[in-house]
Amino acid sequence: MKKVTPVFYISAVIAFLFIIWGIIPESVLPNANLDNVTTLIQDFLVDRFGWFYLITTSIFVVFSVYLIFSKYGKIKLGKPNDKPEYSYLTWFAMLFSAGMGIGLVFWGAAEPLMHFYEPPYGEAGTNEAAKTAMQYSFFHWGFHPWATYATLALALAYFKFRKQSAGVVSATLEPLFGDHMKRGWGTTVDVVVVFATIFGVATSLGLGAIQISGGISSVFNIEQTISMQLIVIAIVTVLFIASAMSGLNRGIKYLSNTNLILAFLLMVFLLVLGPTNFIMNLFTTTFGTYLQNLPSMSFRMTPFDDGNADWINGWTIFYWAWWIAWAPFVGTFIARVSRGRTVREFVSGVLIVPAIFGAFWFSVFGGSALNLEFFEGANLYSLIEQTGEEAALFSLLEHFPLSILVSTIAIILISTFFITSADSATFVLGMQTTGGSLYPPNVVKLIWGLIQSGAAAMLLWQGGLVALQTASIIVAFPFAMIMLLIIISLMKSFGQEKEVLENNKKKG
Fold this sequence. Notes:
- The protein is globular.
- The termini are far apart.
- Helix 1 (6-23) packs parallel to helix 18, helix 7 crosses helix 20 (476-495) and helix 11 packs antiparallel against helix 17.
- The protein is built from 21 helices and no strands.
- It is an all-alpha fold.
């Protein structure tokens, strides 16, 4: 444990205290338990500062697009002779698996259906509602979240591999604040990063256990119980810790490639056996309307309509806060696997490829679900209302041939996505609490893995997962400000690379 920094001990203590707070029932702490307190804070932030989340994430998009076409695009994330460690396919698979692969599986069918019956505007259950449902699904999982990840990941990769700074978030602010980032303020920033990572991933572990057990219940007709969910968490914990301790070039790399293959096969299965022409038409027209309406959706608030405001707060602003809360974890991991790529190559890959893949995924799964609902009266939405969003995917697959086999493959895909997300987070926590070490000690990764799983299991048992998710999202508010400062710091450092840019201009 000689390599750990004060961030490790401070974060571990805070994590322990929050877990204890989360399992204390309301009867013991009336109006002061974790659920009540975090909900009050989150409601206040969303109600009063929703505009701030919209503007901030839109800045990330504009900044990312600017970098692709700017004179800084040829700067390499590393030394001049550094080559990428991973092929394009493996690199994409790793960032996709860590970023939001599991979210696409969870929400691919459910979100369009929910928007169809509860649209952001207009009448529910109509042609227009179906188009709007797909458009907003593209929006919530498209350029904005990936631009958020790309902004932080680029700064971390640039300062770590080109400037040889410590691979921690506080190091990206040193051009602005100098040595202050090596003392108390830097420790504070890194503790915020660790806090968001621990509880964001712990929440996802708990919700993932619910979906996996829901899938097992649906496929094998076994009653879903809390005991089953805890067993799922225990099994996943053993697997992701083993993967994390085997290193990036073994466990995480192989699992990420497996994820991509399984996801592709599942998507092709639905595309070929489903309403293929409908799906392709839907993807084409929805992607066009998404691009066309992107500016207005990006800044859409409803100051004269409280009903619409509730929808925006509950969906768009919630998502934007969630992506910002996940940025420390996903950004750190993407940075770690991106040495040797240029700024243009990096931002293009992180921003464009996953966004287009996600849009096509929603077209296949959401389009298939809407087709069944709209034209065949499948009534999938009623199942979501009865049993939860986790039922949408498996209810959809029941309408296809080989449903038991395909649903079993889907359960395996969900499991491997969760394993890669959790082992990636364990690796990131190890980095952030050992001063940015690219190879954190296994004992540190083991401790963080157990803390994440312990938090998920205890709060799932006590019903406190939503409170933990809310606590993680609250962190997004101060971290959004930190990310805006990181953009300024990064541009300042880019501006000092005139000699590099001139050399690149002579070569190219």
